[in-house]
């Protein structure tokens, strides 16, 4: 049994038209969260800066999760920002763990080297 095509409903004459240009993806991300500095000041050691970044990211993620538990709904852009932030934090923690492991291996090797 063939189906008849359905026509789209006509908009009333008083329906508002959208003439505003949509915001760019970068503008949406900028509005969602604070930007991280591209490079740390050279006077501060890299390890405390990285740890501070991880702590700030953890605090932001905890705040977002608390908001979600309280019933807040998020837009697709906010969820994408959250995913990117979680990924960046996970990569930073993973890199730090690898560096610590490599440092520990170097110390073990130096201690076991006979002179």
Give the helix/strand layout.
Elements: H1 25-32, H2 46-69, H3 76-112
What keywords describe this structure?
3 helices; mainly alpha
Number of helices: 3
- Proportion of beta-strand residues: under 5%
Order of helices and strands: HHH
Kindly state the mean pLDDT as a whole number? Answer: 75
Q: Which class best fits the helix and strand makeup?
A: mainly alpha
What is the helix fraction of residues, given as a range?
55-70%
Shape: elongated
Largest sheet: none
Task: Give a structural overview.
This protein has 115 residues and is mostly helical. The protein has a domain at 45-112. It contains three helices and no strands. It has helices at 25-32, 46-69, 76-112. Helix 2 packs antiparallel against helix 3 (76-112). The longest helix is centred in the last third of the chain and has 37 residues, at 76-112.
């Amino acid at each position: 049994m063939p189906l008849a095509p359905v026509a789209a409903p006509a908009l009333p004459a008083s329906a508002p038209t959208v003439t505003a240009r949509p915001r760019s993806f970068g503008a949406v991300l900028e509005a969602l969260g604070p930007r991280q500095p591209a490079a740390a000041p050279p006077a501060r050691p890299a390890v405390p800066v990285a740890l501070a970044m991880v702590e700030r990211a953890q605090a932001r993620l905890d705040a977002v999760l608390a908001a979600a538990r309280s019933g807040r709904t998020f837009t697709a852009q906010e969820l994408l920002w959250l995913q990117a932030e979680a990924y960046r934090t996970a990569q930073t923690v993973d890199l730090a763990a690898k560096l610590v492991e490599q440092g520990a291996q170097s110390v073990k090797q130096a201690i076991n080297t006979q002179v």
